[in-house]
Amino acid sequence: DTGTWEGSISHYSDGQVQPGAQLSYSGETESFGYTLGLSAKPRNSFLDRFDLLSRPGDIPFLREDEEQKTNATDLAATLNLRYTFDDGDHLNFNGRYADEGRTETIESIQFALAPGNELFTGTFFNLRKVANTNWEIGADYEHRFTDGDTLKTLLLFNSSSEKDERSFSFIPPKAQKNVFRFQSQAPNRTELIVRGSYKFILTPQHS
Q1: CA-CA distance, 65 to 200, in Å (whole number)?
Q2: Whole-model pTM?
């Protein structure tokens, strides 16, 4: 049996920091083999900027100072099982599970602009939470005939679900927070694939 471990860290120019770790463990016998894999990748980023809003041909009337924070974690697990029969046939089983979660917050402090003056008008919040899960299970079987022909079959099932929620709120000066819009969506998708192939070898017996 053998095992490997890998760690990494990445820093991007947009401020995103992404550490990661991967673990793999495998074993093999004369007819059976397996490989197990695990990975985790947290992602964190912070961006700040300011925007000036204006109408064509006019001076800016609004300034927005924005801070955007993103915290996310990607988790995945994989499994591969392999078996070779006495007659040389091969059976493979593959499974994968992935979980991806992300929280994103945008805080925008707004100032109304006038010549030589600016007035704080409030803070706008945009909060988004996303959760994705994905299952994938597959199996394939290969049979080789005595004349050299090969038959392969494949079965693959995939299921994914997502939950995406957003809330929009505004805090005026010296007032309470007001959530004025909330939206949510939760799409689900499943897919089933069945495939077969036959490889025909030209031999003297087939001519």
Answers
A1: 67
A2: 0.77
